[in-house]
Amino acid sequence: MKRLEDSELIFGRMMRITEPHLIARYNEALSGFGLPETRLSSFRIDMTGFSPEVADEIGDRQYLDPHGVNRRYIILSPVQQELPVVHTAFSNTGKLMHQFFNANRRAINALTIKDVLYGEIDDPILVVNDIEDLLSIEQVEFKVHTGQDLASQALQLRVLIDRLRKDPDAWRDDDMLHEMVRLSQHTGDIRTNTLVPEEVVFRHNTFWSSHFGGVYVFIDANQTTVIGDSTAPGFRRSRPWQVAYIDKSDTENIWRFLVETARVQTPRGSWVEKSGYLDHRVEMLVTMLAFHRASKGNHRPGDKRWVQRWMNDNSSFIKDEGTLPFLLWAKREIESWAEIDIHEVDARGRFILSRANPDHKDVWLVNRLISDQVPFDFVARFVFNKPSFYEDYHDWGEALKEHVVKTVSASYLTNKAAMRRQLFGFEGD
């Protein structure tokens, strides 16, 4: 994984913590969770405060996510909002964190000047035992603690201020006035510096979960749809009157669901040619076909002459495998302004030619689902489905690893928004 780290394809854009006072605050949060304090003088954190270095030191990758639910967080700086989430069991953890930061910006800015915020993204369950447990998570509440107890002191001070304003005789209470002075020495003027988060409850909408080999939960107005392994506990048994279930190997019904809910964009010349989407798929496919066909030692995907020679030498294999001829046929049809009847194409082919509807709120999750069906597109896997990308990477030869790192770095890391706009039709994180 060192090549990935050096190229910032894993643990990239994290915040380096070296200041002693920030390390001390981080340790206050760890102690609050009942975890051992770190002895490191330097480590990196993501948006949630997760640190790969601290995880290695503790010997527990799940130290902020012990049961894959009720995710813990540690906030040392408002800058964390701009960081990625690099380790989570739920795809919407980053979205929930963004909502918390946005809703409580003033409190976070004020508190992190002197203190650390930490706590849990709390939901109704403690452990995920079956599908019903996932379906029961309809909203979450951010439980908030501070290392120096500034938030609770601010609440106490607010109560005393309210009493002073509303009780005509409160100004005669010297003990109360002295307590207000004492509290304000710690909190500052809470009339201008809000130290208590005001919005902590958020909806838990459409998401992917790592439990049971990966489960997608799509929530629509009248129905919830679960896509996952049919052997998972509770599959097709939890809320059958309300929930539709599709096995993750049932590509035909997955496709039908995406089309019926307007979550997928089928191939049309209006966007396919402009985006270069099929050219991209061809490049990805040839790279992976050559890798699986050629010996790892002879595979040279970065050498275009080698690739062309490999294609010529393996034309029979390419024809029998069928995917490349299919893609080239689709390209010719689009370029001649012919209409591709998507219903005449098998389910796998439909996923290869299509992308998520850029205007749908679930665009990220649908592109992730599509990448499950098109594993040869390693760029799409990296953008939308990093856990699967890292699993794939582990099994590749050195030549392919080097080529993939260079390709992803050049095509995506240099300008993520531009690449998403070009290939997938949207820019946002």
Care to describe what's here?
The chain has 429 residues and is of the alpha+beta class. The protein has 2 domains: 2-131 and 139-149 and 195-204, no CATH class; 264-424, no CATH class. It is built from 20 helices and 12 strands. It has helices spanning 2-6, 20-32, 52-58, 93-103, 105-114, 131-135, 150-166, 174-187, 251-260, 269-275, 277-293, 304-313, 315-321, 323-335, 347-353, 363-373, 378-384, 386-394, 398-413, 416-424; strands at 15-17, 43-45, 72-75, 117-122, 139-146, 201-203, 207-209, 215-219, 224-228, 243-247, 264-265, 355-356. A 4-stranded antiparallel sheet has the order 3-4-5-6. A 4-stranded mixed sheet has the order 7-8-9-10, with helices on one face. Strands 1-2 form a two-stranded antiparallel sheet. Helix 7 (150-166) packs across helix 8 (174-187) and helix 17 (378-384) crosses helix 18. The chain is elongated and about 95 Å long. The two termini are 25 Å apart. The mean pLDDT is 90.
Which outline best applies? elongated
Please give the share of residues in helix: 40-55%
Strand content: 5-15%
- CA-CA gap between termini: 25 Å
Content-based structural category = alpha+beta
Tell me the number of structural domains.
Answer: 2
Radius of gyration: 26 Å
Major β-sheet annotation: 4 strands, antiparallel
Number of helical regions? 20
Strand arrangement in the largest pleated sheet: 3-4-5-6
Count the E strands.
12
Low-confidence stretches: none
Give the rounded overall mean pLDDT: 90
Brief descriptors of the model:
single chain, alpha+beta, about 10% strand
